[in-house]
Write a structure and sequence with these properties.
Layout (H helix, E strand, L loop, with lengths): L7 H7 L19 H16 L2 H7 L7 H10 L2 E10 L5 E9 L10 E8 L2 E4 L8 H10 L5 H5 L2 H8 L3 H16 L9 H5 L6 H20 L1 H8 L4 H19 L2 H4 L7
Antiparallel strand pairs: 1-2, 2-3, 3-4
Helix pairs in contact: 2-3, 2-4, 4-11, 5-10, 8-12, 10-12, 11-12
């Protein structure tokens, strides 16, 4: 089973930075605000029905939401339950890990995550790639120190269920699941925070990552037409083929940021 976590490009290059000692998770008892639960429910309904307009109204960037809206309908997926959530002390930034489910309601192997930001009285979700400010990066990274990305980013039960499929039936199913996984190209890959939380607690790294997110968002808008073509491609193999050159372009767009990041043990 392949997984496309965009920021692994950065993480692999960092190696074992800051991992000499096991970090501890600072548990909080703060529940997810009702307003965040509501905006997530709106996201679920909008993505399930392909409603780009509603997505735009709750998206932090609020642009090109037709891409995830079209892609979700084409790939026959929808957001599932919230698996875990964290909220900062000021209750104006939250981080959600949620399931993605297929047309039968079965959770898919890869979970997605969302940064939620309160501006004024309204909450929004980072659904499409956006230039995130330094303070949001700092808040989310502090929330996730010590969180195991594999535990939260991957649904082990869904992986195990797919492993039990008879070999003669597996090919088309895995093609579809891989295409559903690559749907992540149409939404912001907030899993970077799961993978790099400790690294992103360093102020210098937060500054660098603001540029990373700008480059990521620019890749999204620069490749709008090809992404739109992919979103509307029904055949899962063709869908992956259309996305492959876009992944190469993304690698080029974010190339070099990993080399600038400071080891958190020296930050």
């Amino acid at each position: 089973m392949k997984k496309w976590f965009i920021p692994l490009l950065l993480v692999f290059a960092l190696g074992a930075c800051g991992n000499d000692e096991e970090s501890t998770v600072e548990e909080t008892e703060r529940p997810l605000p009702d307003a965040v639960t509501e905006v997530y429910a709106n996201y679920q309904a909008a993505l399930e029905s392909g409603d780009a307009e509603t997505l735009a109204s709750i998206d932090y960037a609020g642009r090109l939401t037709d891409l995830p809206a079209t892609g979700a309908v084409t790939r026959q997926i929808a957001p599932g339950d919230i698996y875990e959530s964290w909220v900062n002390e000021d209750e104006d930034v939250a981080f959600l890990v949620h399931e993605m489910v297929d047309q039968d309601g079965n959770p898919l192997p890869n979970r997605l995550s969302k940064v939620a930001v309160k501006e004024g009285e309204d909450w929004s979700l980072v659904i499409t790639p956006a230039a995130l400010p330094k303070d949001v990066i700092a808040d989310v990274s502090e929330l996730l120190i010590g969180v195991d990305a594999n535990e939260y980013g991957v649904n082990a039960e869904a992986n195990a269920r797919l492993a039990e499929i008879p070999e003669d039936e597996a090919g088309p199913i895995y093609d579809q699941v891989n295409a559903q996984t690559d749907y992540m190209a149409l939404e912001a890959d907030n899993n970077v925070f799961l993978l790099m939380a400790e690294t992103l607690t360093v102020e210098e790294n937060q500054t660098i990552m603001t540029d990373y997110f700008k480059a990521y968002a620019k890749w999204y808008t620069d490749n709008e037409e090809t992404l739109r073509e992919a979103a509307a491609t029904e055949n899962p193999i063709q869908y992956i083929e259309v996305l492959d050159p876009l992944k190469t372009k993304l690698e080029e767009a974010v190339d070099g940021y990993d080399e600038q990041l400071v080891d958190p043990s020296f930050g």
